[in-house]
Design brief:
Elements (H helix, E strand, L loop, with lengths): L1 H25 L3 E2 L5 E2 L2 H9 L1 H13 L6 H14 L7 E3 L1 H12 L1 E4 L2 E5 L5 E6 L4 H4 L7 E5 L2 E2 L5 H8 L6 E8 L2 E8 L1 E4 L3 E6 L3 E6 L6 H14 L4 E5 L8 H11 L3 E7 L4 E6 L8 E5 L6 H11 L4 E4 L7 E7 L5 E10 L15 E2 L18 H14 L1
Parallel strand pairs: 13-14, 14-17, 17-18, 18-21
Antiparallel strand pairs: 1-2, 3-20, 4-11, 5-6, 6-7, 7-8, 7-9, 9-10, 12-13, 15-16, 15-20, 19-20
Length: about 400
Amino acid sequence: MAKKKFYALIVVLLLVTNIITFTVANVVSVVLPNGKVIVPREEYQLMKEYSKLFDIRQILINRYVDKTDPSKLLDGALKGMASSLGDPYTVYMDKKEFSDFMTQTTGTYGGIGIVVAVDKEDHIVVVSPIKNTPGERAGIKSGDIIVEVNNKKVSGKNLDEAVSIMKGPQGTKVTLTIMRDGKTFTKTITREIIKLETVYEDMLPDKIGYIKITMFDQSTSNDFKSALNKLKSQGMKGLIIDLRDNPGGLLEECVNIANMLLPKGVIVTTKGRIDSQEYYSKGPGLGMPLAVLVNKGSASASEILAGAIKDRKAGVLVGTTTFGKGLVQTVVDFKDGTGLKYTVAKYYTPNGTNIQGKGIEPNYVVELPSDYTPKDTLDLKGDTQLIKAFEIIKREIK
């Protein structure tokens, strides 16, 4: 019996010794008396793999013709790593860029008030001008291609830089070179403080409610709920939601709004390499006729909402085919003022459709007249898309 206990003790000691050895070799860095360091195996492999990066850094710091800023070299290396994927929506953001990005979804910023994306040809395309901003007043339209910013050529490869140049202090000017219908022209626009008011409501004749959503920021679903309740208290019988020129925004806000409109069931599915997720509506749904206005400026989160409503037959879409951005981004805050925005998944409508590069075709395709000029107020005489949606809802509530 004593022998068995002795052998068991030996086995335990061997196991403990092996665990300690493995931990020292693979996890813990050990400083030897001579100043040398034993590093974990994985860390050593990384150091070997990235040794050229460190070599280049030292060469540039020590030998480049002008004095270099090590922090800029690091930012440049990190930006290059993100951009090497060829995905314009995956970007490393330095302190200024990350601050600007966070401001755009949480507050106000100095700029001209346009939202841009990258098309299949690597052009920077205006998704939409934000309502009541310098960009809208200057006549910038969805689909415009931005060729230059302040005489600097831009494309999807330097989207991040182009956006940064367009932003700036209130009262300063920025010049855009724009291509539209094959013709190029310039616009010099004075920057203003852009306030992100994302929800507007009104009551049309016959008790048909109207809610415009300009984008999905952190307060949009609460503002939408307030607008919806206000219209219901006024006796609303049917609803038109206007997602035209809505570039998207926060997925969670979109899902929250969809939960107010859809009966119980799937809203959207996101599928990534690591993680996939289904978002569900708890119901019971809006309980009245619903039409949604969309166009080529409706992108990302607005397409998620429109796609869910169409696929679940909770309402109809009216307008023109949407932008076609079926990718989901997430943001990493490194807590030092910098951040990484990267594509984490593709999203699929309840019918299993990914609309990346294709967009969503409405139930009723309606073009605006070529000479139509948007009005500051709801236009039931010239806005053919709104007129069609109004007629559909009016017919359903009778």
